[in-house]
Amino acid sequence: MVRTVISGTGLFTPAESISNAELVTAFNEYVRRHNERHAAEILAGNVAALAPSSTEFIEKASGIRSRYVVNKSGVLDPEIMRPQIRNRGNDEHSIMCEMGITASQDALKNAGRTIADVDAVLVACSNMQRPYPAMAVELQHFLGIKGFAYDINVACASAAFGIQAAAEAVGRGDARSVLVVSPEICSGHLNFRDRDSHFIFGDACTAVLVESADQATQKDGFEILGTRLLTQFSSNIRNNHGFLNRSELPLRSERDTHFVQEGRKVFKDVVPMVAQLITDHLRSLEIDPATVKRFWLHQANLGMNQLISKRVLGRDATEQEAPVILDEYANTSSAGSVIAFHKYNADLKAGDTGVLCAFGAGYSAGSVVIRKL
User: Fold this and answer.
1) What DSSP string describes 231-262?
2) With contact defined as beta carbons under 8 Å apart, do 123 and 136 qualify?
3) SS3 for 52-105, per residue?
């Protein structure tokens, strides 16, 4: 196996952003209209009254202050409350492909590479726009890349799984370099009428270029010292949307085909699982956690990240050690840890080590330990 490096990263950020205040105003208007429409049933005890949300509740529960979305007007309309996306023809590139093109071009530029240097494309994300043709094959086509492409879906851990697959392909000589692209339109699977989760997600797309250390033109990239994956089945985070929905009897409720989670159970289960994964991974590489300069963790919940890093380090991590982007981006699923890495790695010096760790539904988790060249 040859040495592999992350030589470049790229980021696509949608043009529109929604603040907590804007989101709460729209949600509370929906609640007011719902309770007004069902006033008689609520009075009779046949329908439960909906409770309003607040910016204070959102920030305390998650640390999120805003999120980027592909469509703002649809989300904030109390009668719609979902992004509205133009239906594109089969000969046009899809919106996920469009996001992926921008992020990929950014990653290639940062790596000092061109399309001709890439042999494979992996699209690794939580929700694919369609089951086939693969989103990765579409992106490969519109980028003009020869070689192979395939999709990976391991929920919020997808990017970490994709980086491992890319590192293995490069390490075995199956490809010179591989793009791992994570287009996430999380607003499309979010139930904006659910008080407990309407604030959680945002949209973005990241790209990571993995190649052999010997051929990398950028000598200040990050060597991949090791990867480790872990899965454990749980329904505490679930999205039941699928092609068999229309065939099920009785038909599922619309709510059941959106993101649903048991937040407290997830917190209780995932924190120790991920902390142990990182600790064991570092131990296997004979790296003392105290020497790790940066932890780029999945950006889902501020409290969760703080507790994971505390368990690994044995103390509270500083903001520099465990940077946060979810306050601005919210939870962007598989893209979150890569966004943190993309924005917060330039200050590291040669020899510094870091851990990129993504985790989510499944449960699924992936750890990537890297060292600055």
Assistant:
1) E---SSEE---STTGGG-SSPPPGGGGS-EE-
2) yes
3) CCCHHHHHHHHCCCEEEECCHHHHHCCCCCCCCCCCCCCCCCCHHHHHHHHHHH
8 Å CB contact between 265 and 196: no
Burial (CB count within 10 angstroms: exposed 0-12, middle 13-18, buried 19+), residue 341: buried
Question: What pLDDT, in 10s, does the model give residues 316-360?
Answer: 999 999 999 999 999 999 999 999 999 999 999 999 999 999 999
User: Which positions ≥6 away from 347 have C-beta within 8 Å?
Assistant: none
In the block, tokens 């309407």 appear at: 198
- For 191, half-sphere exposure in the C-beta direction (CA atoms, 13 angstrom radius) is 18
Residue pair 94/142 in contact (Cβ under 8 Å)? The answer is: no
Q: Alpha helix (H) ranges present in the chain?
A: 20-37, 39-44, 55-62, 72-76, 95-111, 135-143, 158-172, 263-284, 302-313, 326-329, 336-343
Most distant CA pair in the chain, distance: 73
Give burial (CB, 10 Å; 0-12/13-18/19+) of 220: middle
Element (H or E) spanning 364, and its range? strand 364-372
Instruction: Name the nearest CA neighbour of 55 among 342, 270, 327, 255.
Output: 327
* Length of the chain counted residue by residue: 373
CB 182 within 8 A of CB 335: yes
Q: Hey, how many other C-beta atoms are within 10 angstroms of the C-beta on 71?
A: 20
Beta-strand relationship, 364-372 and 203-212: unpaired
What's the whole-number average pLDDT of the chain?
A: 95
Mean pLDDT to the nearest integer, 200-208: 98
Q: Which pTM was predicted?
A: 0.95
In 3D, which of 332, 324, 267, 266 has the Cα closest to residue 295? 324
Q: Indicate the domain borders of the chain.
A: 222-372
Q: How far apart are the first and last CA of the chain?
A: 18
Domain 222-372 has CATH 3.40.47.10: yes
Catalytic residues, by residue number, are 156
- Rounded to a whole number of angstroms, the CA Rg of the chain reads 21
Give the separation between CA 276 and CA 43, rounded to whole angstroms: 50
Whether 252 contacts 245, CB under 8 Å = yes
